[in-house]
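re: the backbone from monday

yeah here it is again, tokenized this time
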């Protein structure tokens, strides 16, 4: 999917960037990783609540912690922008903000990374952040990754209305539906 997304978006890059994107997607297949509290500390201080707080804390952290925090911040903003960018347009903090913070996180990470090949990867993400957001958006729209909430909404619509289109979409997703005569019973109750 990453190669197809890069091709469809006409983005040329090198294999290490592709591998990085594959690993990023694999990491976020487990949605819990999106919400992990990786910024917790031992002294009981609260976790930062905003992207700006995360960035500020990362900038002032010791080198190994700084690199890890910047990478996670860059990765998280890239993933969220690509997979949930449509919902960001309805928020006070929009995709431009995510792109700025994510790009800055990757740029800082490139400067503090000692490995030249990884610094090149992070510089690439920093300078072309929105291009890679488009690749992830393409993958999101063309993958079978669906939220439980959207599947439940579709199933609820099918149960309430008996919509044939809703039933077909559910079957495409591998969700078994009740026969139409049982759906009608559900509508009457």
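seq for it, each position gets an aa:
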């Amino acid at each position: 999917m990453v190669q197809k997304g890069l091709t469809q978006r006409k983005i040329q890059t090198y294999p290490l960037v592709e591998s990085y994107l594959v690993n990023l997607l694999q990491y976020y297949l487990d949605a819990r990783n999106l919400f992990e509290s990786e910024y917790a500390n031992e002294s009981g201080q609260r976790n930062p609540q905003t992207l700006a707080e995360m960035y500020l804390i990362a900038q002032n952290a010791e080198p190994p912690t700084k690199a890890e925090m910047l990478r996670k911040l860059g990765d998280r903003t890239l993933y969220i922008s690509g997979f949930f960018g449509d919902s960001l347009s309805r928020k006070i903090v929009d995709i431009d903000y995510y792109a700025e913070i994510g790009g800055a996180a990757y740029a800082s990470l490139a400067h503090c990374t000692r490995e030249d090949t990884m610094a090149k990867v992070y510089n690439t993400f920093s300078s072309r952040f929105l291009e890679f957001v488009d690749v992830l958006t393409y993958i999101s729209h063309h993958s079978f990754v669906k939220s439980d909430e959207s599947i439940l909404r579709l199933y609820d619509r099918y149960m309430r209305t008996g919509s044939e289109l809703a039933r077909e979409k559910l079957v495409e997703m591998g969700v078994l539906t009740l026969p139409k005569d049982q759906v009608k019973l559900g509508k009457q109750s």
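DSSP finds eleven helices and no strands in the chain. The longest helix spans residues 63-88.
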